[in-house]
Amino acid sequence: MRSTFLPVILIVTISLIPGCKKSDTTALPVLSTTPVADITSTTAISGGNISSDGNAAITARGICWSSLSNPGISDSKTSDGTGTGQFSSNVTGLTSGTLYYVRSYATNNVGTAYGDQVSFTTTTPQIATLSTTSITLITTTTASSGGTITTDGGSVITGKGVCWGINISPTTGGSHTSDGAGNGSFNSSLTGLTAGTIFHVRAYAINGVGTAYGNEVIFTTSTPLAANEVSIQGMAFNPPTLTVAKNTTVKWTNNDGMAHTVTSDTGVFNSGTINPGGTFSFQFTTTGTFPYHCSFHPDMTATIIVQ
Q1: Residue 71 backbone zone (phi > 0: left; psi -120 to 50: alpha; other: beta)
Q2: Fewer CB within 10 Å, N or C, the chain?
Q3: Is 274 exposed, middle or buried (0-12, 13-18, 19+ CB in 10 A)?
Q4: 62 bridge partner residues
Q5: So what's the pLDDT on residue 257?
Q6: Residues 126 and 210: beta-carbon distance below 8 Å
Q7: Do 219 and 143 contact (CB within 8 A), yes or no?
Q8: Quick one: pLDDT at residue 223?
Q9: Residue pair 213/201 in contact by the 8 Å Cβ criterion
C-alpha cells in the first residue's frame, strides 16, 4: 500500500511545478517628454525618453503637438523610429506668437502611451538689427560702405544693401545698392556721386516684417584735383599713383577725419603729422619713382612718378 502511494505524490508534485512559474505580462510604455528648445517663429525641437517598453517592442515613437492641451497622435506629430531610449524631434509648420502643447508618445502592441505635457510659445518676428560700415575709398564720384546684420529678427533676410542721399535718413526709395540676401556682413559700392558733396548713408535689410536701417554715416566726396595734387581721404591716397614732370611741386591735402603723414619709403620726404584740413607740399627735382606711405597707417600707400 505504501509503495503505491509514493508514486502518486511524485506525479502530483511534478505536475504542479510549471504552475509555479510567473508568466510575463505586457503594459503600456513608460516615457517622458524632453523640454522644448531652439524655439523660432515656425519651428522648435523636443523629443522624449522611453524608460520602459512595457515588455513589448516599441513600434512607433515621436512627439505630438497642438494649440490645445493634451495633444495625441491624431494631431500634428513626428515619427522618430522604434525602440526604447532617447530620441529628438523637429517641430515644424508652427504659427508665430502662438502657445503650443507638446507630448512625446510611444506605441507597442498594448497601445499608445504619452509622456508629460510641456508647453512653449513661438517667437514673433521683428525687423532685422544691423549696423552701417564706415565709408572708405572715397573719390569724386564713388565710395565704399556696407553693413553687418547681427540678427534677422526671426525672419529670413531677402534683401540687403546701402542707401544714400544728400538728405538725412536715406531710404530704399532713393539711391541704393542690392547686395543679395542672408545674414552677416556685406560690402557695397556707391556710384554716381557728385564731387565735393556731403552724403548720408545707411545700411538696410529686408525680412518678412519690413525694412530695417543701420546707423547713419556721413561723408564728403572729393573735389576735382589739380594735376599736381593728392587728396588724403577715406584712409587712402587719391590718386594712388601720380605722374608729374621734373621740378613739379606736389601738394597733399588731408580731407580725412584723422591725422596722417606723407612719408617717403626711402627717406626723400616726410610731412610729419598732417591734421584734418592740413596740407603738405614737396618739389621733385629729380626723376624716378618715389613710393610713400602714412606712418600712422602703414597700409595706406601710394607712388609719385617723376619723368
Answers
A1: beta
A2: N
A3: buried
A4: 105
A5: 84
A6: no
A7: yes
A8: 82
A9: no
* 79, three cell numbers: 515619427
Q: Which CA distances in Å does 186 have to 130, 151, 189?
A: 11, 14, 10
Q: What's the confidence (pLDDT) of residue 139?
A: 86
pLDDT of residue 77: 97
**pTM given for the model:** 0.59
Cβ neighbours of residue 138 closer than 8 Å, sequence gap 6 or more: 219, 220, 221, 222, 233, 234, 236, 238
Distance CA 135, CA 287 (A): 35
Phi, psi of 261 (to 5 degrees): -130, 160
The three cell numbers of residue 203 are: 545700411
Q: β-strand 211-213 against 229-232: which pairing, if any? A: unpaired
d(CA 286, CA 248): 10
Q: Residue with C-alpha cell 575709398? A: 137
Tell me the one-letter amino acid at 224.
P
Domains contained in the chain, CATH given:
30-121 (2.60.40.10), 129-220 (2.60.40.10), 229-306 (2.60.40.420)
Report d(CA 15, CA 3) in Å as an integer: 20
Residue where the block lists cell 509514493: 6
DSSP one-letter code for 168: S
Q: What is the mean pLDDT of each run of 10 residues along the chain (307 residues)?
A: 44 43 79 96 96 97 98 97 97 95 98 98 95 92 96 94 98 98 97 95 97 96 87 91 96 93 97 95 97 97 97
